[in-house]
Amino acid sequence: MSDLSAFSAAPRAVAAPTRPGQIALRWLLFSLLGLFALFYLLPLFVMLTTSLKSLEEIRSGSLVSLPREVTFEAWRTAWSGACTGIQCEGLRPYFWNSVLLAVPAVLISTFLGAANGYIIAQWHFRGANLIFSAMLFGCFIPFQVVLLPMARMLGWMGLAGTIPGLIFAHVIYGIGFTTLFFRNFYVTIPSDLVKAAKVDGAGFFRIFWSIFLPLSLPIIVVTVIWQFTQIWNDFLFGVSFSQAGTQPVTVALNNIVNSTTGVKEYNVDMAAAIIAGLPTLLVYVVAGKYFIRGLTAGSVKG
After folding, report:
1. Of 298 and 258, which is predicted with more confidence?
2. How far apart are CA 82 and CA 255, in angstroms?
3. What is the CA radius of gyration of the chain?
């Protein structure tokens, strides 16, 4: 009882009052962050408002003014009627080309990166560090360096100018990054877990499918976001390894914006740019909160 009374009589810690200088510094920090956010979002605001205006209003109005009359005609034209050269089909066929390109390339490169990271991190063998270093070296090779060798290889394989050829190019170029992500995540998993699974009779693939993949959701999200963003936004591989009918949406967007025929339709250009960038924006909105969490998940060890 005396202990309880002594505990109740003990003085409680009182939070120190916030000083005026700290309040001013906090408001200054928030103001700077707000200015940076406005500066970053202003181009997106201009793109969105311009895409909702008619050409007459764009010519007579201000760049940052709200549309007097909202119209989605520019969006319809950008999707199904804008000219990318001699064809006026809009972004629609090229958008689906990018979907057919990005989804298989992301899935294949993510799976191969998971398998490589699992082998390098947990199944130690002679030369593992050398192979991992070679993959890391591949991450720092610029796109321009591999254009000619990749074009020769795609021609030799009969995949030049095709969507499977673009998938192959992005998978090869992305394996280094995906292996790095998964390897740094898998080294944080205790090796005793693998030893215990081996004692229970689990083999190479059983350990991978039943133990490592279920634990890999954070790093899978990171890899999918990274690869999808890189592949969807790529222009150099798309313009180099594709032909008419297989071009991705970034190449079609460039052709629409740089078209010299007819009147320059800025509202159509802005609508096309938003349509082309919308999938990556949606990916970050849906899974962005897991991105930093997954990146830091493998930063403790390795």
Report:
1. 258
2. 10
3. 26
